[in-house]
Amino acid sequence: MKLFPAILSNKLEQRVQGNALRLLFVSNKQLIDFSSNDYLGLSQSEIIFNETHEYLINNKIIQNGATGSRLLSGNHKLYQETEDFIANFHQSETALIFNSGYDANVGFFSSVPQKGDLILYDELCHASIRDGIQLSHAKAYKFDHNDFEDLEKLILRFRNEHVFPSAVEGRGTLLSEIYIVTESVFSMDGDCPNLEELVQLSDKHNCYLVVDEAHALGVFGSAGEGFVQMLGLQDQVFARIITFGKGLGCHGAAILGSPELRSYLVNFARSFIYTTGLSPHSVATILVAYNYLDKEKKNIETLRENIIHFNQEKNLLGLKQIFVRSKSAIQSAIIPGNEKVKAIANQLQEKGFDVKAILSPTVPEGQERLRFCLHSYNSKEQISEVLGLLSKLIF
User: Fold this and answer.
1) Which of 33, 216, 227, 277 could cysteine-pair with 70, CB 3.0–4.6 Å?
2) Burial, 203: exposed, middle or buried (Cβ in 10 Å; 0-12, 13-18, 19+)?
């Protein structure tokens, strides 16, 4: 076997020296879960597991794999039924399933914005969005987190640079399009943008608004439809990216939008075109999980009660100052320094609580944090106990 390249070894050593080397761990089921994205516990649902199996048997679908890309042999009949259900559930004209949220974001941003277009994205947008943008031929600039004054300055600067006189005196013609990109719940901070204000700004400047709802599905809305629908803004957003690996407890993602957008993605999104489709079992799990979400509201209500309890407890314990303001299932306590935050996480784990440290460079240096993920299956007693322990370790 050839020697490992020295430059790569050096990069690994830098991670070791910075106490930031990533390792793979097998999940410890004995610890109380405050780390997974399984907000409603649906990944553990025996009902969904058994109903998925029954659905496949009853429909005589005895097949382990998709056998090819969806444009060749992999577009089995379950896809259409599931995409129709998702579109109806989310009050969208269409839905197009991708193999993962990463694939959906990379496929969308690498193909939709064109050369000469502009992408303006929140500085805290997920890595999958950034990776898709890097593959795009459009120019891209980040705006300060949830700062729409900064965003509007960028819009006006771009418009002024790209407006040319038309035949009609006093008017101009726009050279290209602007895409505004945000998340309804940010994955590291757990906070939400003012989407109503952002929609108004997008309409004012004739921009296309794209919202990643990965951490909002199952958390916001009367049936967990997401933040956009909870606000009734679904008809004013150009595209929504919905991810199934979190609140829905399974795998895959969908892009919601117009029939024209769906057709365009089928023809030009490379992460959709050049990959084997999901297996019938995976798609059936998505459909069954959506049906469960549509009918069962208890888990959603319990999760919301736990979020309220967490916020009340951290205030009572004097911890509010170290937490990012959040009304979502993600609660982050800023504890600067990789070594310090890892030490506190280890102590919480030794006490039986699975709380993970998020280190730089995943987050900026000085913004290292403990990331608490709340679930419908966490008890209020567990929440109070873990915050009480944190209070003793911090103060």
Assistant:
1) 277
2) exposed
Question: How many residues can be counted in the chain?
Answer: 395
Indicate the CATH number for domain 63-295: 3.40.640.10
Contact 192, 307 (CB under 8 A): no
Kindly report the backbone phi and psi dihedral angles of residue 369, in degrees, each rounded to the nearest multiple of 5, phi listed first.
-155, 160
Confidence of residue 174 (pLDDT cuts 50, 70, 90): low
Q: In the chain, count H helices and then E strands.
A: 14, 14
pTM summary value: 0.93
Closest by Cα among 160, 157, 151, 153 to 179: 151
Q: Is the per-residue pLDDT at 164 higher than 70?
A: no
Fold of 26-41+297-394: Aspartate Aminotransferase, domain 1 (3.90.1150)
Which pair of tokens denotes residue 153? Answer: 């300055």
- Beta-bridged to residue 164, according to DSSP, are 173
| Structure-block tokens of residue 64 | 């382990």
Cα distance between residue 176 and residue 178, in whole Å = 7
